[in-house]
Design goal:
Length: about 525
């Protein structure tokens, strides 16, 4: 064994248990936001951070990288990405960890107050989808933003601290550091965002003008006077029923967990063990969002969700189980460091699976909707999917451009910057006189920083993989060959190849927005 391989083996064997302990603590805090769980998470994250900040270990990684090649070099590159951002003074590291945990916990504990009633995000979402009472809609929308006012000062402080860390390491700001550590090129990222803007601006404007006409008719308000609370979710990142197809009635009495299991069974991917370990339904004191976590890279994979009937949670369950099957599909012989996913590849798989919740073949074959009903809807379903991609892309443009501004200057007028971007990309008007930190109500800005562009790449990858599956397997639903293709070409290699190379190997083509553009054209 070479010296370089020995360095990788040694550090990996110490890092694996520390990392698993942090994942466990993080899971516990998200299913029960208690002071004890917060204390435990901070303690374990500090232990991990202390390990990663060790200068001697970092120097040995750098020295070993110089003489390594092949998979050993790959493992050392990944270690470098983990260690480099932690080469910081201890007090700065601990302030970041403590503040992140504290903000995260406040998001978990927060429930809005609507006329004296405690409401969770599912309830706010229900009102914005269903209510015709504009007063109630406005109140629900405003309630959805109250968490922003609670945490915004701390989110700005987090941005300052993260920037101080980035400067110490020689990066322009935290945005630049994050993108580099994710093996992405910032110049290419900006070019991709510009390309996405150009490809979606016109079709989105056209689609939204039609949507606004329908919303104006529904609410009896002129289209020019529509406010953010006329749309069906607090950030207008989803398609209102008026702009797509309402699939909720088909899923009203369905067991979404059972349908999820059935979907993956149909392509030969096992999800039972994951579902048994998961925490899937809403509860007080629990994180209101959804995620999948691979706790130990040895098979303990879990999903957190807050399932209620309807398409949104169907999509989310399929999405999270997409992540889970990826995490469960690595080649067993891979070393621990390589039994992991790149964010873009795993979001690509998750989005590919989530899209099934509005897929004609899936509705008929898995959800059991009558063939005649599905046939009548199939054109509209494709158009609705295209609308979803348009709406979501425009929101990613808001988020990513906002985060660039946040890290460029955390003390700037961010409240105004947010609305300037919302007006430009989403064509939603800022309510007259509105001045509050509405941006801070989006949990990702605090707790999953510089991540949102990954979802746009995920959509691009999902479209490209989807085209490959159609070409080679005839599609995805109930085709075990499709599950095999994904397992062999995407899941098994783990991080042994770079994400862009992985996509190229799996699809026979370098990453391209061609198929994404084709999917959007169905609007
Ligand atoms: Zn995801």
């Amino acid at each position: 064994m070479t010296n370089a391989a020995a360095v990788a083996d040694q550090i990996e064997s110490e890092l694996a248990p520390l990392s698993a302990a942090v994942s466990h603590a993080w899971w516990e805090l998200n299913i029960a936001a208690t002071d004890e769980n917060e204390r435990r998470r901070v303690e374990l994250e500090t232990a991990l951070s202390d390990f990663l900040s060790d200068g001697d270990r970092f120097a040995s990684i750098e020295a070993a990288r110089a003489e390594a090649d092949g998979l050993v070099r790959r493992r050392l590159d990944l270690l470098r990405h983990a260690f480099l951002p932690q080469q910081l003074p201890a007090d700065l590291r601990s302030r970041i960890i403590e503040l992140e945990a504290s903000v995260d916990m406040r998001f978990s504990l927060h429930r809005g107050d609507l006329d004296g009633r405690r409401v969770d995000e599912n309830e706010i979402r229900r009102i914005l989808r269903e209510s015709d009472d504009l007063g109630e809609r406005r109140a629900a929308w405003e309630t959805s933003k109250t968490v922003g006012a609670e945490v915004s000062d701390d989110v700005r402080e987090l941005a300052r601290l993260r920037n101080r860390a980035a400067h110490t390491l020689g990066f322009r700001d935290w945005f630049a550091l994050s993108v580099a550590m994710a093996e992405m090129d910032e110049g290419k990222l900006i070019a991709t965002l510009d390309e996405a803007d150009r490809a979606t601006a016109e079709p989105f404007a056209r689609w939204k003008a039609e949507l606004d006409e329908r919303l104006a008719a529904r609410f009896g308000s002129p289209a020019a006077g529509l406010q953010p609370w006329h749309y069906a979710d607090a950030f207008f990142q989803e398609v209102p029923v008026e702009g797509g197809v309402d699939i909720d009635p088909f899923l009203e009495s369905a067991d979404l967990v059972e349908l999820s299991r059935r979907t993956f069974d149909g392509i030969g991917l096992e999800t039972r063990a994951v579902l048994e370990r998961s925490d899937l339904f809403p509860r007080e004191g629990k994180c209101q969002h959804a995620f999948c976590v691979d706790l130990d890279r040895e098979g303990d994979i879990r999903v957190l969700a807050n399932v209620v009937p309807g398409q949104q949670w169907m999509d989310t369950m399929l999405h999270e189980l997409g992540h889970a099957t990826f995490d469960g599909g690595f080649d067993d012989s891979l070393p621990w460091l390589l039994r992991d996913t790149h964010l873009v590849a795993t979001e690509g798989i998750a989005i590919l699976m989530g899209r099934l919740a509005s897929d004609a073949e899936w509705l008929e074959g898995v959800a059991g909707v009558a063939p005649g009903e599905v046939a009548a809807l199939s054109g509209a379903l494709r158009a609705a999917r295209a609308a979803e991609m348009l709406v979501f892309t425009r929101f990613v443009l808001v988020m990513t451009n906002f985060e660039r501004s946040l890290y460029a200057d955390p003390d700037s007028d961010l409240d105004a910057r947010w609305w300037e971007l919302v007006e430009r990309y989403q064509l939603v008007t800022r309510p007259a006189g509105r001045s509050s930190p509405d941006w801070a109500a989006k949990i990702h800005i605090a707790c999953a920083p510089v991540y949102y562009h990954t979802y746009l790449y995920g959509h691009i990858v999902a479209s490209q993989l989807g085209a490959t599956l159609v070409r080679e397997c005839g599609g995805l639903v109930d085709r075990p060959a499709a599950g095999r293709l994904l397992s062999e070409r995407v899941f098994a290699p783990g991080l042994s190849v770079r994400w862009d190379r992985l996509i190229e190997q799996a699809t026979g083509e370098a990453l391209t927005a061609t198929y994404f553009g084709r999917d959007i054209a169905a609007v």
